[in-house]
Design brief:
Two copies of one chain form a homodimer.
Chain A (H helix, E strand, L loop, with lengths): L6 H5 L2 H10 L3 E2 H11 L8 H13 L3 E6 L6 E6 L1 H30 L6
Antiparallel strand pairs in A: 1-3, 2-3
Helix pairs in contact in A: 2-5
The structure holds a DNA duplex (30 and 30 nucleotides).
Chain lengths: 118, 118
DNA sequence: GCCAATATATTGCCACGCGATAGGTGGGGG
DNA sequence: CCCCCACCTATCGCGTGGCAATATATTGGC
């Protein structure tokens, strides 16, 4: 099964989501996937082919940092948000807010156009 | 100059925006571009290479309908939303709402994490 | 020992925003 | 009167990134 949102919707905010989860504490890929699933009320079901390339991109951009760790039992690749990542999270959040406000103002007339009459 | 939002953010909601504008009345491409610019407070500056292919896609999907019209002076291609388009607008709006709620719930802990202390 | 869940990774496909480019029309100023 | 410029639509190629499919290894339970 794939994602409940279209791939296009996700595209704008996947980085934001992942960074925000990692801002709440370090974790590894598979667990991140589960956390997103839970935090989104089962709506964001990230595929492995989406998740891992994304993490690699974020790491290449120095927004996150990784380390192989076996102390917790199984060998897993733990990710941690960097200072640059936190900064990006902040600017991305601000852009997200502007974006939502923008769309909402465009949808306003539609919404008030009585979908169900008084 | 390009769009003020990244291409990825736009991707999820461009259809929604265009349909919502057209739901407010028929118009032609160039004017739609200006309307979006104005309605978004200059934030959504759609390029021609984005706008026209998008309109053609929406028309191919029967969500909008076009007609060359010269009665208003210059020859322009007028677009009108169809019944299917209105229906799509409605479902897309609902999905948008779920999407925003989802992201907002993920951002909530970040926002409450004292960006500026009490 | 076998199987399912856990865990990471890669490849190819495809959609689409964007920059660049092109072509045509109409009106106002020189 | 003609030229320029704003207007208006269109297309091509590029890069990005989500996704399905696939591969591979590990661990715990039965």
């Amino acid at each position: 099964m794939s994602n409940r949102f279209g791939p296009d919707l996700l595209r704008g905010s996947l980085d934001l989501m992942v960074l925000s989860v990692l801002a709440g504490g370090s974790t590894y890929g598979y667990d991140l996937q589960q956390k997103l699933l839970a935090a989104s009320n089962e709506l964001v079901q990230l595929q492995a082919g989406t998740l891992y390339p994304l993490l690699h991109r974020l790491e290449a951009d120095k927004l996150i940092r990784s380390r192989w760790e076996a102390s917790t039992g199984r060998k897993r690749k733990w990710y941690e948000i960097t200072a640059a990542g936190k900064q990006r999270l902040s600017t991305q959040t601000a852009e997200w807010d502007r974006y939502v406000a923008c769309i909402e103002s465009m949808l306003a007339p539609i919404r008030s156009a009585a979908p169900h009459p008084v």
